[in-house]
Amino acid sequence: AIFLSHINVIRVFEQTFQRAGLQVAFTQGYNPKPKMEFVNPLATGVSGSFEVMAVEIEHGAQLDEKATLALLNKYSPVGFSFKSMQVIDTERRVTLSKHLGGSIYTISELDDQEMRESLDNLSKTCSKEVNVAKISIKGASSYTVIINGERNPLKTLFGIERDKFDLLSHMKMHRENLFIGEYHDNYKDYSTFSTIWQ
Asked: How many other C-beta atoms lie within 10 A of the C-beta of residue 102?
């Protein structure tokens, strides 16, 4: 799944919903697109644990959460799974991205000295855009990275000149979660979205 582009991921989800018998609403016009919103989509080569999307489904208000999740997971390809869902019954357009505070990443298995030095330097500073913490366990180091907003993590950490595929060939990058509002130890993620929406 991490090797699929965002456009291909959209197609995967569109097909998954079709196979599950869930009718996704489409935009109007000559080139209709499924009404799906992905919050800060992952770059190709980056994995994620709790990605967030909004989908407009015809007659979606009647969906049972447990049964719908079982159906979606039955028809999802390897590498994708649905963990939870919330039904928002409204005539208004729901936009999830405007609530995004930022993302939490883990970088591990880093084998490039220059990249390691960049992260070590960032871990010694504090900024509004990015915070890096180095974690060493039994000689193995990893980094927890908190990036505010929708910034591209690779460009934010290593500069715009570096090729993303070259960077990712030297490490594993995994998004642990997306958070809402300001980051702190008891941050809110999108599982609390229904309380924000109300």
From this structure: 23
